[in-house]
Design brief:
Layout: H1 2-29, H2 40-43, H3 47-57, E1 66-71, H4 78-87, E2 95-101, E3 111-113, E4 118-120, E5 123-125, H5 129-136, E6 141-143, H6 145-149, H7 152-155, H8 157-164, E7 169-175, H9 181-194, E8 200-204, H10 213-228, H11 243-255, E9 260-268, H12 269-273, E10 283-290
Parallel strand pairs: 1-8, 2-7, 2-8, 3-6
Antiparallel strand pairs: 1-10, 3-7, 4-5, 9-10
Helix pairs in contact: 3-4, 3-8, 4-8, 9-11
Length: 292
């Protein structure tokens, strides 16, 4: 009996070690799976904030023939989110792709997406699986549910967009920070041939970070000048958290003949809160790309 016990004990140790090794390898070999449909970035958003932003948006003159637009992802700028969405309210999308920064650059590939249906206040945000499957088949895209579950850039805009467009499906797409014009154009071309005629691409981007008001405005002058050039490559190196997301949204719009731009809002956290002496603020530039 004692000999059998020793054999069993050593076998269990071996099995345990093998399982641990497989788990470690699995973290590199397969996408991580989120255990639930809820995500922390969504849990801090209240219905009152979303409703207030929506009402602000209804006062904005709608922009025609919208193909894509730029939205912020900080709640201090919630009313700005409502305003730029309101500017696009005449659009009739069935699918909206939200592309934003992979802030910590944790993705294994350049782009990361999700197959998960996310929930907020009883609302469900489901992806169109055929589009996500086609996206994941691309060589530089991978699904990683836990990465998306922690990435506020693509989750925060969801309730605000759904309030205006209640029947759409959402594709969430993060992109690493290293700028690559060719990769941005490839993604824009993929989205152009895959999405429907009225579908939208939304770049979730914040601009200058962690500077005082004077330096922030100087940064924004650089970003505004680059946007005015209407060239995705001109966005390389601008002071924003995801020039790549901007380049994809701009290139997508241009592929659809939407070559006009309308600036809806340009401000920063210091001005929004009234604390003009703030030494570490973030700026917001909300632009709509549209036809004439």
């Amino acid at each position: 009996m004692r000999k059998a016990w020793r054999l069993s004990k050593y076998s269990l140790v071996s099995i345990g070690a093998a399982a641990l090794a497989l788990a470690i390898v699995g973290n590199f070999a397969a996408p991580r799976q989120a255990p639930a449909l809820h995500a922390a970035p969504l849990e801090i958003i209240t219905p009152t904030v979303v409703k207030g932003a929506f009402l602000r948006g209804q006062a904005v003159v709608p922009v025609p023939k919208v193909a894509s637009f730029v939205i912020s992802h900080h709640l201090v700028a919630a009313n700005l989110m409502g305003r730029v969405i309101g500017a696009a309210r005449d659009a009739r999308p069935q699918t909206i792709v939200i592309v934003g920064p992979d802030h910590p650059n944790r993705g294994v590939t350049r782009f990361t997406t999700s197959r998960t249906t996310w929930m907020w206040q009883g609302q469900r945000y489901a992806p169109p699986h055929s589009i996500v499957d086609a996206l994941v088949a691309e060589p530089d895209v991978r699904a990683d549910e836990l990465l998306i579950a922690e990435e506020h850039s693509v989750l925060t805009p969801l309730p605000f967009l759904q309030r205006q467009f209640p029947h759409v499906q959402f594709v969430l797409l993060t992109v690493q920070s290293n700028f690559d014009t060719a990769a941005a154009l490839r993604m824009a071309e993929f989205l152009n041939r895959t999405l429907g005629q009225h579908d939208l691409v939304v770049a979730s981007v914040d601009f200058s970070h962690y500077k005082n008001l004077e330096a922030t405005k100087a940064d924004d002058a650089i970003s505004l000048a680059a946007l005015a050039q209407a060239s995705p490559n001109a966005l390389r190196g601008i002071p924003a958290d995801s020039p790549m997301s901007l380049a994809i949204a701009m290139a997508f719009a241009q592929l659809r003949g939407a070559n006009a731009q309308t600036l809806v809002d340009h401000t920063n956290g210091a001005e929004l809160t009234g604390n003009l002496a703030e030494t570490s603020t973030t700026s917001y530039i909300d632009v709509v790309f549209h036809g004439k």
